[in-house]
Amino acid sequence: MEEVGRPNFADYFPVLRSIDPQKIKYRVEVHFRKLDKLFDGMIKQRLESRKLGNSPSSSCSDFLDAILDYKQEDGFQLSDPDIKSLLTVYIARLPYLQAVVKETFRMHPPVPLLLPHKAESTVELCSYIVPKNTQVLINVWTMGRDPNIWENPTSFEPERFLNSNVDFKGQDFELIPFGAGRRICPGLPLAYRMVYLMLASLLHAFNWRLEDGLKPEDIDMEEKFGITLQKATPFKAVPIKI
């Protein structure tokens, strides 16, 4: 998150992109390779544990175990690419979980201003002339709260997405927390799977309560704006093992 949000001179001076003077692009790619290696290692570790006869009991199995239990018709264990593809299939079976994540991204995008874009041609937008090659900053925080797009925009209502095909993959411009087009976040495919997987696993494994008896209606939802979006007043949710 720090690297993605760090100001990059190459975004403002295209001639520097191939040079990558601050090495931000290089470090981001390194981080994503580490994440892929981490997740692949978790899958392989679980598979090795099963080969040794350590099958999960119904009381301690998790989302990854559910996917590993899925076998092809010919009886062979699924490969790593198959497991990653199945994550997408399982996500599709959790519509309300998807709706909660989408609504969270709508109201609280991780980065309020997307990386700079450039106008490919001169256009008129809302009575303003945007000249060709103008640098454009997209305020996705404001877009997510636009009453012309969203009904009750300041209310957290995941149900709005239950009968909607709107997604955050860059095709629906009213919801683009990861950007769109050629400048879309390169980590979107990973985030698409892992955000749902982590949230589903946490909800499956624990009950949750707010710290110090705080009530949900008393949570301070004000935000602190910066390169990334943070809560002005942090709070803790305490996990209780089921």
End-to-end C-alpha gap: 31 Å
Q: Mean pLDDT across all residues, rounded?
A: 83
Shape: globular
Flag low-confidence runs.
none
The main pleated sheet reads as: 2 strands, antiparallel
Number of helices: 8
How many strands appear in the DSSP assignment? 8
Summarize the model shown:
Heme binds at residue 185. The protein has 242 residues and is α+β, with helices and mostly antiparallel strands. The chain has helices at 2-5, 9-12, 24-51, 63-68, 80-92, 95-107, 140-143, 188-205, and strands at 117-118, 123-125, 128-130, 135-136, 206-210, 223-224, 230-231, 237-241.
Give an overview in words:
It is built from eight helices and eight strands; from the N terminus they run ααααααββββααββββ. The protein has 242 residues and is of the alpha+beta class. It has a domain at 1-55. The strands form four sheets. The protein has a two-stranded antiparallel ribbon with strand order 1-4. A two-stranded antiparallel sheet has the order 2-3. α5 (80-92) crosses α8 (188-205). The protein is globular, with a radius of gyration of 21 Å. The model has no long low-confidence stretch (mean pLDDT 83).
